[in-house]
Write a structure and sequence with these properties.
By secondary structure, this protein is of the alpha/beta class. The protein contains 6 helices and 17 strands. It has helices at residues 12-23, 57-70, 132-135, 151-161, 180-187, 282-302, and strands at 3-8, 28-32, 74-77, 80-84, 90-94, 98-106, 110-112, 128-129, 143-147, 166-171, 192-196, 198-205, 209-216, 222-226, 229-232, 236-238, 268-270. The strands form 4 sheets. Strands 1, 2, 3, 4, 5, 6 and 17 form a 7-stranded mixed β-sheet that branches. Helix 1 (12-23) runs parallel beside helix 2 and helix 4 (151-161) runs parallel beside helix 5 (180-187). It is elongated.
Length: 305
């Protein structure tokens, strides 16, 4: 057997699982398809995680990556092309390798949906953000925009209105897909400006965001809106279809698992934003990683009994 546990994904949840597994004496490997560290890499600073006050997301990711490697965790950037998780031996194939393990932890996260407009990629971490509770503090007393029309967008807007000078809520429709309570709370804030039937088609600036170009979805007229930052809150998207044979997915594509991080398949666990849960934050990702690793260790210790 190559490994005790293979972790699919090397974001915060995956790396935490690998660290806990290594501390338990398990031989661990992380396989990541995109970037080690996950989405937190794009955060300009962290203020809501213990002992990481004002640490950049990139530095946080580098630190946890180093910690895992120092404990003997093997980490590789590879694209998985085939998996078999049904038997006692879990098999994962990449383009150049085949790995076997006793257990697997799925920690593939959930990606923030992007606007895919001109300038978005250039200004990530330079005024473009996807988590108000993570990055809102850096825009205190400034003018920001929020894009979206669901509960997350409205909650982010209300939160930011308490620390920012002005918050411009931009939504491509003329009504919100949010609960009445959030809509009513929005109306109580004097510093929230609504831009309905508008969509962001371009983000402009120099070193940081300076303004966005809005298009009227009805008249197609354009307007400029000066902003110091733009928060994009149009939803999250998990990518779990390749695991659907061995795990149950909810209607949004998240892996169904409770707080013990177990799936319906023996020896297959899930951690972080990719599972069904109410709160998706850095601290809950680390908690999931720890639980998943402990559950995997318990499974390995008892699977042949």
């Amino acid at each position: 057997m190559d490994y005790d546990v293979i972790v699919i994904g090397a974001g915060t949840a995956g790396l935490t699982a690998a660290i806990y597994g290594a501390c338990l004496g398990l031989k661990m490997r992380c396989i990541e398809n995109e970037i080690v560290g996950g989405q937190i890499v794009n955060a300009s600073g962290i203020v809501n995680y213990p002992l990481a006050n004002n640490m950049s997301g990139a530095n946080f990711a580098n630190a946890i990556n180093k910690q895992a490697k120092d404990l003997g965790v093997e980490i590789s950037l590879e694209k998985i092309i085939d998996i078999e998780l049904g038997g006692k031996t879990k098999i994962i194939k990449t383009k150049n390798s085949k790995y076997e393990s006793k257990a697997v932890i799925i920690a593939t996260g959930a990606h923030h949906k992007q606007l895919e407009c001109d300038g978005e990629e250039n200004f990530k971490g330079k005024g473009v953000a996807y988590c108000a509770t993570c990055d809102g503090r850096f825009f205190r007393n400034k003018v920001v925009g929020v894009v979206g029309g669901g509960n997350t967008a409205l909650e982010d807007t209300i939160y930011l209105s308490n620390i920012c000078k002005e918050v411009h809520l931009i939504h491509r429709r003329d009504s919100f897909r949010a609960v009445k309570r959030n809509i009513e709370a929005l109306k109580q804030k004097d510093n929230i400006i609504l831009h309905l039937n508008r969509e962001v088609i371009k983000i402009e600036g120099e070193n940081t965001v300076k303004q966005v170009i809005l298009k009227n979805t009805k008249t197609e007229d354009n307007q400029k809106l000066r902003l110091d930052g733009l928060f994009i809150a149009i939803g999250l998207q998990p990518q779990n279809e390749e695991f659907s044979q061995w795990v149950d997915l909810d209607k949004k594509g998240y892996i169904i698992a409770d707080e013990n991080c177990k799936t319906k398949t023996d020896g297959v666990f899930v951690a972080g934003d990719t599972r069904t849960k109410q709160v998706r934050q850095l601290v809950t990702a680390t908690a999931d990683g720890a639980v998943a690793a402990l559950m995997a260790a318990n499974y390995i210790n008892h699977r042949d009994i």
